[in-house]
Amino acid sequence: MGHVGSLLHNDEYRARPEPVLLTLGPASYLEIEGKGAPRGPGVEAAARLLLALGKRVHAMKSAAGADFAPPFLEARYWPRAGRGSHQGRWQLLLRMPESVRQGDVRAARLALRGDRARAADVRLVRFVEGACLQALFSRGARDPPQALIEAARARMLDPAGPRHEIYLGRAAGLGAATELIVRLPVTAPAGPLPGLGPRRGWRRIRGRGRSGSSRRSDRAP
């Protein structure tokens, strides 16, 4: 039986131990990013901040009659830039419904007690992952990304972006989940897969929820 990870987007958060291929369209997230070890203190502190701000947004939307299922913490990890580098890029995410606007995020920052300056680093973004292999893993599974890479090769596909982890538990912190969904963006060697949909990449949402013009590649910097 598949695991339903989010009532908001059931099909995208349903996974099995066997890798499956799915195509993901545009999605909105609260996002904070940085560089460092994937389980380092900087990532954990950012996760606590993101979850606190996400709770504020959720409470405000619920009070306004636009309730939604609290999202799981998610993360994307890029490989280190080169030999001798210990500073891989990471990005923490909370999935948001389309009803969340930039003004909601600004209001949540003002209502957040504590590190308001750091809260300014949390942004509302929208991006497309496109075609991905996805599977469900236990927390202690050995090298889930490599398992997906091997599954991609068996399907004559190439990895095409950072690994994406979804932590199935709503307790604070990256280490609280006992299961996780892992996604690996993929493409065919000859080019994009049929039915890939919108171009990969993300945009920062500005103003009243309209997308800005800036894009950032999913490739490692």
Write the SSE topology.
Blueprint: E1 3-4, E2 14-15, E3 20-24, E4 27-35, H1 41-63, E5 73-77, E6 89-96, H2 102-111, H3 116-119, E7 123-128, E8 130-138, H4 144-154, E9 158-159, E10 163-167, E11 179-187, E12 201-206, E13 210-211
Antiparallel strand pairs: 1-2, 3-8, 4-6, 4-7, 5-6, 5-10, 7-12, 8-11, 9-11, 10-11, 12-13
Helix pairs in contact: 1-2
Structure explained in plain terms:
This protein has 221 residues and is α+β, with helices and mostly antiparallel strands. The protein has one domain: Multidrug-efflux Transporter 1 Regulator Bmrr, Chain A (Alpha-Beta Barrel). Helices cover 22% and strands 32% of the residues. The protein has four helices and 13 strands. The strands form two sheets. Strands 3, 4, 5, 6, 7, 8, 9, 10, 11, 12 and 13 form an eleven-stranded antiparallel β-sheet that branches. The chain has a two-stranded antiparallel sheet with strand order 1-2. A hairpin with a 3-residue loop joins strand 12 and strand 13. Helix 1 (41-63) packs across helix 2 (102-111). It starts with a strand and ends in a 10-residue tail after the last strand.
Task: Quickly give the CATH architecture.
Answer: Alpha-Beta Barrel
Within the CATH hierarchy, at the fold level, what is the topology? Multidrug-efflux Transporter 1 Regulator Bmrr, Chain A
Percentage of β-strand residues: 25-35%
Overall number of domains = 1
In CATH, what is the homologous superfamily? Regulatory factor, effector binding domain
- Give me the number of helical elements: 4
Helix content: 10-25%
Which of globular, elongated, flat, extended, rod-shaped describes the shape?
globular
